Amino acid sequence: MIIKNGTIVTANDSYKADILIENRQIKAIGTDFDTADAQVINAADKYVMPGAVDVHTHIDLQAGQFHTSDDFFTGTRAAVCGGTTSVIEHLAFGPKNCSLRYQIDKYKKNANEKTVIDYGLHGVIQYVDDNVLKEMEQLTAEGISSFKIYMTYNFALDDASILRVLKKAQELNAVIAVHCENDTMINYLRQKYVREGNISPYYHALSRSDDSEAEAVERVLHLAHIADDAPIYIVHLSTKKGLDVIRQARSNGQKNIYAETCPQYLVCDAACYKRADGLKYVMSPPLRKKEDITALWRGLADGSIDVIATDHCPFYWKSDKQAGINDFTKCPNGAPGIEERAIIMFSEGVMKDRITLNKYVELLCTKPACIYGMYPQKGTLLPGSDADIMIIDPSENQKMNINNLHGTVDYTLYEGLNVKGKIINVIRAGEIVYDGNFTADAGTGSFIERRVLK
After folding, report:
1. Which of 147, 155, 207, 281 is 20 to 30 A off residue 58, Cα-Cα?
2. Considering only CA atoms, which of 400, 401, 392 is closest in space to residue 421?
3. Mean pLDDT of 163-176
4. What is the mean pLDDT of the segment spanning 46-68?
5. How confident is the model at residue 369, as a pLDDT?
6. In terms of Cα–Cα distance, which of 389, 446, 283, 432 is closest to 52?
7. Could you say which DSSP state residue 350 is in?
């Protein structure tokens, strides 16, 4: 396959050249390749970029009585139709006291049978003892080089347990992803609002304040510093206060701090909770104020935030989300976004001059691949890299509509949003899998054995 006449965009460069693909990889980048017997894609006036990398998904999640609307086939189908060619899945909690490996083995089996793109897994740590720490070591050697901990929910870790995990991670050079919210603060406010009869979706946002996020971010960064600057990755950052804490820690000299935000925190604000369909936006952390949105965009532009992921966690609006109709605390937390991310961030970021083309590739492709041990196999366009590529036509406009998406969920957060740009081709492992039509087979994705942080 040869991609001709396009503008190649990486995190560092933009230039006109052709790409030669052989045996699932980029063979060469240059000009005047022999097109005889080659499949040729004409990318004139289009941007040729690495396939996007989404390092924060909950495609196949059991959350209490609710299961996400996707499985690994439908979720990765939606991903690849939106330009994402590899994901790293955050696992659901397993049974109480289960081994760290228990959920990983379960997820691998499901994913291997169904994925249409390459995938990795983050281990999820529900409790800490010597066996769990030993399993971290074993799993890191097997290509699972990152682990998720929670500071809220039923399996929230206390500070002593977090410190033990971070010390082990520092020893292994593994990355610890952290959901940062103050559990005590949240539970106090949730109970207070319900007791007072304040049960609409708007009180979901009020119960999970920006102080809740900022306090948890600050606390876990202190713990990471005590653990000799263990690698720490703050997932779904949503507030100016949280961002300010990260900047302060870095200015104090702390190393190995990484931060992620998501499109919903860059496009939507807390006013959505006052809408008739406000339950659609119940996610944790919640949507914030417009000033938080402004601060996050600035953080992306100046390098304070490293990654845009999705936290894709879709539940059906017409059934699952209705559980919260009389009490926001009963609504499953999460929202879809795996297909929408790349093009909405192109439109809202690049086309509105909030970030450059190169910064766009850095945030959605290169930096997540680097942090999580997949670069240069993923996240860039270099000879020897996997031939995972998305091609964007910046001249095409579209309007977001659930009927044009490829997941199973029955709504999008961005319904009716005018979008500048369109993904017209997605190539996975040297094969066109989306050109307006999806053509990949279930089970054709592969598990990614990831390296530790360098």
Report:
1. 207
2. 392
3. 98
4. 97
5. 98
6. 389
7. I
Task: Judge whether 111 and 89 are in contact, CB under 8 Å.
Answer: yes
Instruction: Measure the CA–CA gap between 164 and 114, rounded to whole angstroms.
Output: 35
Q: For tokens 């941007």, name the residue.
A: 47
Rounded CA-CA distance 84/427 in Å is: 10
Determine if residue 199 is left, alpha or beta; phi over 0 gives left, psi from -120 to 50 gives alpha, anything else beta: alpha
* pLDDT at position 316 over 90: yes
| Strands of the 7-9 sheet, one edge to the other | 14-16, 7-9, 47-50, 389-399, 418-428, 431-434
Written as six digits, the tokens of 90 are 């955050």
Q: Which of 367, 212, 219, 349 is nearest to 304 (CA)?
A: 367
Confirm if 55 and 372 have CB atoms less than 8 A apart: yes
The whole-number pLDDT of residue 167 equals 98
Q: Which residue from 395, 392, 391, 394 is spatially nearest to 427, judged by alpha carbons?
A: 391
Taking the CA atoms of the chain, what radius of gyration do you get in angstroms? Answer: 21
Calpha distance 53→244 (Å, rounded): 26
Residue pair 336/413 in contact by the 8 Å Cβ criterion: yes
Taking the C-alpha atoms of residue 50 and residue 26, their distance in angstroms, rounded to an integer, is 11
The kind and range of the H/E element at 138 are helix 130-141
* Mean of all residue pLDDT scores within the chain: 97
CA 410, 334, 346, 424 torsion-angle sign: negative
The pLDDT value recorded for residue 454 is 81
Provide the CA 6 distance to its chain's centre, in angstroms: 27
The rounded distance, in Å, linking the Cα atoms of 78 and 338 is 7
Side chain identity at residue 385, one-letter code: S
Q: Are 79 and 424 in contact (CB under 8 A)?
A: no
| Cα separation, 339 vs 79, whole angstroms | 5
What is the C-alpha separation between 405 and 440, in angstroms, rounded? Answer: 16
How does pLDDT run across 86-123, given as a tens digit for each residue? 999 999 999 999 999 999 999 999 999 999 999 999 99
The whole-number average pLDDT for the span 203-210 is: 98
Q: Tokens 């500048």 — which residue?
A: 420
Helix (H) or strand (E) holding 223: helix 210-226
**CB atoms closer than 10 angstroms to residue 42:** 11
What's the rounded mean pLDDT across residues 328-336?
97
Q: Do residues 120 and 86 lie in contact, with contact meaning Cβ atoms separated by under 8 Å?
A: yes
Alpha-carbon distance values, 453 to 170, 233, 253, 294, 450 (Å) = 10, 12, 19, 30, 9
d(CA 67, CA 332): 9
